[in-house]
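2024-03-11 09:14:02 DEBUG pipeline.ingest accepted 1 chain
2024-03-11 09:14:02 DEBUG pipeline.ingest length=286
2024-03-11 09:14:03 DEBUG pipeline.predict start
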Amino acid sequence: MGSMRFEIVTIFPDFFTGFFENGILRRALAEGLVEVGTHDLRAFTHDRHRTVDDRPFGGGEGMVLKPEPLAEALAALGIEPKNSHPAANPESATQAEPASRTRVVLLSAQGRPFTQAVARELATLDRVVLICGRYEGVDERINDLYCDQEISIGDYVISGGELAAAVVIDAAMRLIPGVLGNEASSEFESFGVADAEIDTDVEGVPRSQHGAGGLLDYPHYTRPAEFAGVRAPEVLLNGDHREIRRWRREQQLRKTLTNRPDLLENAALSKEDLKLLDAIRQADQI
């Protein structure tokens, strides 16, 4: 299996320099598990001022990224308009043609929410092309003609898609096999998979935690056992894996109920989880 490649189309390619040189991504790049290409949108302009934006039709505030430079940048990456792709014309497509392993993503405040499930989906692809919106946005014809997905990283507005691209790359990249030192890490953290989907076990030691199953992670503690007069929970110090497992699940449910109750609607909950949840609600009067 070859490395996964991210392509970033941006007017600020230097924005990503520090991002590539630190942490897990730096190691993933060095080991060839991930490749990243940045493409300066201004390189695909043909006027003296390297113009990438223009005033919006119909008036209004701000500027809009022009379609021509974006179309040329995508063409340089081998991306064709959807209506010229065989998939858009079933009569010309053959059954032997494989599904595309490339996805074009427009990053904008109008997109669908980016979630761990979307990150997992992207991590299975060969190539993800990220278009970084700027100003008031991107000419919608680029979205209609070229993009497979429009993604937002949250219900707020930031200055451009570069920060969003970094978030998407980091979240998806760490789910690629081999990127994390411990393959179980991504299974047991917040928004991770359910117990039924996890087969990780280390040297026969009973697993002392639950898969997140769409819930938030449980609290973590490390040495010293006492800090600033506060002692770590005794259950974590006694070595009883069964008790640790139950305590951690209870904490996951409590933290999710407090901070993100909306996640409980689609979480993978057992009968025991539901009993714990009722007990937590009664004890905390939530």
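2024-03-11 09:14:41 DEBUG pipeline.report Residues 213 and 268 are 5 Å apart (CA to CA).
2024-03-11 09:14:41 DEBUG pipeline.predict end
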